[in-house]
Write a structure and sequence with these properties.
By secondary structure, the protein is mostly helical. Helices cover about 80% and strands about 0% of the residues.
Length: about 90
């Protein structure tokens, strides 16, 4: 691969990474509806949000511990820790 092709692929990878970061943030923001359901007496299962919070925690740790911090991974998954934990906790409030 020549330098031009490498630059093009690098640009494409960065673009896809940015889109994936936004998609991940939207996915975790979808927990807001589940939190609202929990508070209105229609609790959701606590299993999926706690698994999401654990998964997001692991990805944030991975991104943070890399020699060059992987900020897209950290930014995309940090809300998953918060929203997953809050959804899990509020699922027990009736």
């Amino acid at each position: 691969m020549d330098d031009k092709e490498v630059m093009k692929r690098s640009h494409e990878a960065k673009l896809i990474g940015n889109i994936a970061t936004v998609a991940c943030l939207i996915m975790y923001a979808s927990y807001i509806d589940q939190i609202a359901l929990n508070f209105t007496g229609h609790p959701v299962s606590p299993l999926q949000p706690i698994c999401a919070a654990i998964n997001a925690s692991l990805w944030v740790a991975y991104g943070w511990l890399k020699p060059d911090k992987d900020w897209p991974v950290i930014i995309a998954n940090f809300p998953g820790i918060i929203f997953g934990a809050v959804t899990f906790t509020t699922s027990f409030i009736h």
